[in-house]
Each structure stands twice: as C-alpha cells, then as structure tokens.
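Problem: given the chain below (317 residues), write out its structure.
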Amino acid sequence: MEDTVLTGSENFSYKFINSWEKMPTGYSWDETVGAIADKKDNIYVFNRGPYPIMVFNNDGDFISSWGEDIFSRPHGISLGPDNTIYCTDDGDHTVRQCTLDGKILLTIGTPHKPSNQFSGNPFNRCTHTATDPNNGNIFVTDGYKNSRIHKYSPNGNLITSWGTSGTDEGEFNIVHNIAIDKDGYLYVCDRENHRIQIFNQNGVFETSWSNLHRPCAIFIDDDDVIYVGELGFGTPISRDVPNIGPRVSILNKKGQILSRLGDRGYGTQLGQFIAPHGICLDSKKNIFVSEVARTNMKLNNDPEEEVRSFQKLQKIT
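Solution.
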C-alpha cells in the first residue's frame, strides 16, 4: 500500500491518514456511522459494536468509551448546544441528548416502540439530528420507514413536522442526514432522490441541489462550506460506473462544487472509500469520515474481514 495519497484541489487539498485511530487491546468496531469533534478537538466516534461511543484525542490516542447497553443500532450523531451530543438510534427509534461523558439528559421517542410505517408520526427508524445553536430547536430526520422531518423545542416537545414520500419538492426517498447553516437554513440529504433539499425552519422549501449521488452525510463548517459524503452505488449493476462515488464533495452555499475527494473509486486501499455515512471536521478543518463499510460490502457480496470503516483526511492547504 502507498504511504501517502493526496486528494482534492486548490484550497481543499488533503492527505489520507492510514490507521489514524489507536485501538486499545480488546476494543473494535464493526463499522462506524458518524463522529463529532468537541471544542478540544477530541473525536467521538459512534459505532456499531460493544463500545458504541469511542473517544480519541486528535492524534488518534484512545481516551475512553461509553454507551454500552444503551443503543440498539447507532445511526447518527451531531454536536448540540452546550457541548452536548445528540445520538440517533434507528434500531430503537429514539434520539438521546448526552453529555460528553455519556450522561443521558433527554430522550425523544419511546425505546422500541416505533410509529406506524409512513404514518408521519415520530419515529420509525429515525436517522439523524441537527440543532439550531441560536434557539436550541431540534430537527430530526425520520428516516427509513417515515419520510418526515420533525421540529422539537429544546426540551423535546414536538412543534411541527413536514414531508412525505415521493420525488416532488418537500418529498423524500430516505431522508437521511441534516445540517444547519449560520442563517438557520436546513440542508437535508434526500438520499435515494440523489439530492439535497433546503428548507427554512418552518419547513418551507427553498431550493434543491441534484449534483450529488446518494448524499448520505453532511457537515457545515464555520465558513458555511458544506461537506457531503456520497454513499456511491447502490447495486452491483452500477458498481463500475465512474464519477458517482463513493466520495466526499465540498460545496458552497449556491450548491456549486468546490472540490471532490476520492477519485480512486470504491475499495479498501488508501485513497478509496467504501460507504461514507457520517462526516465531521475539527477546528483545523481536518475531515473525519465514518463508513458503513461492512454493511455495504455485505450487500455487494465482498469479503468483510479486516474492513476499514473510519478515515482521517488531514488538510494540507
């Protein structure tokens, strides 16, 4: 394997870091679904395995773990107000707000009691959460068995919901991940419709971007630059089609592509992606990509031993 692989262009150039995380003896993850960076640039990785939250410093040294016996099927994680974490569990249909050391402050949804499929009521396999830093309102994408966005007050009271299944404006086909820009607009990964839809906080449709393939993960940095993890092909029939991912795309607020990372296609080698599912940045604008690698490889009948599911892309310009 090559020692150094670079990706990107102009102001968005990165180096892939191989085996960034230093896993202690006896620890492992089946696959990772998302991550956040706290104010000290510690990285909290949400993963499917015996230790759902693993915490590393920015050099990849292991700090701690928590969440054992809490989560059913981790799916999404985001940083909330006051340095709290929102963990979205599509296995037990809940969103939990936690402290950085794992104390549960708020649970939205009733564990293991989903709403009826596509009823519009929360939740049936919810996927991700975003919070407005100005007012604390909580937005949940819901998800695999609902086509809905739910807006909650900071204490977890439902304010409103919008969306249904379909392909028109305000309709979704797997509403997957969500992020909020400085102006309070919501950017929603409408994954199987191959687009990002943008709404105001009352659910009014603003615009959509269709220059993405199965957008799965989204993160907006302090400069309102948008980073999108594209899951890539969904069936073996499109596996060898070039220029559709898996990859990370970087866009401005007009939806224009600034750079694309990962031009080596699907695979396990350095410089390749398997299935980007979650994305975050630290204060130095290094990118951390979580991948549901094992799930995607199983769907495509690939061997699953020793699968990499987390990567750091170190910014070099």
